[in-house]
Amino acid sequence: MLAEETHRHDHAEPETQQEVLLRVSGLKTQFRQDGRTVTAVDGVSFDVRRGETLAIVGESGSGKSVTAMSILRLIPSPPGEIVDGEVLFDGKDMLGLSDEEIRKMRGSEIAMIFQEPMTSMNPVLTIGRQLSEPIQVHRGGDRKSLLAKCVDLLRKVRIPDPENRVKAYPHQLSGGMRQRAMIAMGLGCDPRLIIADEPTTALDVTVQAQILELLKDLTRERGTSMILITHDLGVVARYADRINVMYAGRIVEQGSSGDIFKHPKHPYTLGLMSSIPRLDQPSGTRLTPITGQPPDLSNLPSGCPFHPRCRFAEDRCRAERPPLTQVSDQHWKACWIDVNKP
Amino acid sequence: MGSYFIRRLLALIPTLIIASIIVFSVVRLIPGDVLDLMLSENDYSATGHDTREQLERALGLDRPIYMQYLSWAGNALRGDLGNSLWRNTSVTSEIAERLPVTIQLGVLSLIVALTIAIPIGIYSAVRQETIGDHVGRTFSIIALAIPNFWLGTMVVILPAMWWGWSPPNDIVPFFKDPLENLKVLLLPSIVLGASLSAVVMRMTRTMMLEVLRQDYIRTAWAKGLPERTVVIRHAVKNAMIPVITLIGILIPILFGGTVIIEQIFRLPGLGELLLQSVSTRDYPIITGIFLITGVVVMLVNLLVDMCYGLLDPKVRYDG
To answer: Where do runs of H (alpha helix) occur along A73-229?
Structure first.
């Protein structure tokens, strides 16, 4: 295990490929507008193994969605551009594929589930139509078998009365139903990787849990890998095997769920944790928000980009940007400080 | 849907009444009245009246205007729009004779405008900032800047000067000989359609750009759909909703355009009749034409409203 972890960042050992489904290394995505360049993702590396759920956590603007979009090359260009890095999916170089080849990967091998099911579904097409499209394009089939498949998918995501719901338009469904339909859309072609971008942000708390349980069940059942993108560390705790914490376009802490929750090493992760309410804390304990604003990506602070908001910051933090270094077996952090030191 | 349609039709009635009152009185307020014209042209001999008063009484113009309106409206309800003051022919039959030409010119112009505008608008948006986009936008600016009366005049005059050819104006009914009919009407329709296409094209492009930025388009890409499907199935249907509204607004403008184009191409349509009647102050004809076009415009707008339901499933007519 140790060998695998060390090589995740300079990927030299081919035998670990067996387990790894997606390997992202040194990914760098920039946006250019009016002569300004914003680096939204700056040298991000991580692996997703078969059957596991990897969470990418961060505030808005931390680059988590752009990372996900870059994998499928869905960054609108211009103004966006993937300037550096490598994305290997099952050994296939995603960034080197032709437009037609990458199109065939989208929806069939790697599916995306978006946030905001209100705006992510086409208002003028029926649920059935939108559900059957990826299947039709990637797998083929006649109207009748597609319709049957759609009904099946809706049943699988536990939408009641699927026979009638296929004929409905998005506005006729509730938010939770739409999100389920969105998930069904992603599952249509039995993808090997699902990228869920804030799948529950727009929903009520009770519905959130249902949706996440559903996603977990479905991925476990099929052995599908998942990248779960969220700003909510609370969501991640139960559903992710491993966690990437992102800040200002970089991974600042990486590790298994247990490591991150029990022994957070980065002050930013610590900040995220103390801003979630917990039942096991004595009543009257106040939530501590992270002070300050997320950084302006086109004008990052010197050194560690988190230092202006960090209560541990030292002179070194202001001068030098910390690299991602190993803390323990599977645990990495990008910080100069030992937060456990009294 | 049915009851909505009926309610909308009923709502047209007060609109029509107000419009007819305005039209009826405004026409009679134009300076220079028909009596002066007739007397100065010695045309009264034909009607056999010697004095202005006699002529006025004979034409029924001596009664108070509201009495004239009421009797006109009463007749109009029975389908009789009165007689021409000069020719003593029935206004209804004169309009009936010319209406098909104008309607065909209008419909054809609209078809020309839409077949030019919508594909170019979509292309311009999908290939934003490419040469194709710039060519399309340049075309639309030019079409917007050139008044159709100038373009029409050039189309008539230049071939006549160069080759001694001018566009034919003998209209054969479309269903009798479509080809001969189109030979006459296609050119004026293109001239009229070109100016309309500019507006529609710009609207289509703007709306497409707007729609292409929507989340559901990103979803469509993420599903691995080919570009054609993303653009045509997912974007165009959404982008067309405001374009349809614009087309509704363009219909009265289109009618204004036919008046000019019919004049230039010497087509025997309503516009030509209208212009001629205005210059001779033939009140019943002017009023009749305004009434008919008013009804047509209102019906087309109703039709446009019904079209929303086809495009946008959120529109329901049963509320």
So the answer is: 99-105, 117-120, 127-138, 143-156, 162-165, 175-187, 205-222
Which domains are delineated in chain B? 2-91 (no CATH), 92-311 (1.10.3720.10)
ipTM of the complex: 0.83
Query: For the whole model, what pTM was predicted?
Result: 0.80
* Residue listed under structure tokens 């476990």: A220
Chain B partners within 8 Å of A122 (Cβ): 216, 219-220, 234, 238
| Identity at A122, one-letter amino acid code | N
Interface contact B219, partner A, CB < 8 A: yes
User: How far B21 CA sits from the closest chain A CA (Å)?
Assistant: 42
CB proximity A124 to B under 8 Å: yes
Closest CA–CA distance from residue B214 to any residue of chain A (Å): 7
Helix orientation angle between B270-279 and B283-311, rounded to the nearest 10 degrees: 150
Q: Do the Cβ atoms of B226 and A122 come within 8 Å?
A: no
Query: Which residue in this structure is represented by tokens 């009798």?
Result: B176
CA–CA separation, B278 vs B27, rounded Å?
Answer: 8
Contact A114 B222 (CB under 8 A): yes
Note whether B228 contacts A: Cβ–Cβ < 8 A: no
On whether the CB atoms of residues B200 and B243 are closer than 8 A, the answer is yes
* Burial class (CB within 10 angstroms; exposed 0-12, middle 13-18, buried 19+) of B42: exposed
Contact B128/A at CB under 8 A: no
Q: Does A177 touch chain B (CB under 8 A)?
A: no
Residues A74-80: what's their mean pLDDT? 82
Q: Which residues of B274-287 are buried (b: 16+ CB within 10 A; e: fewer)?
A: beebbebbbbbbbb
pLDDT digits (tens, 9 = 90+) for B210-238: 999 888 999 999 998 998 889 988 999 88
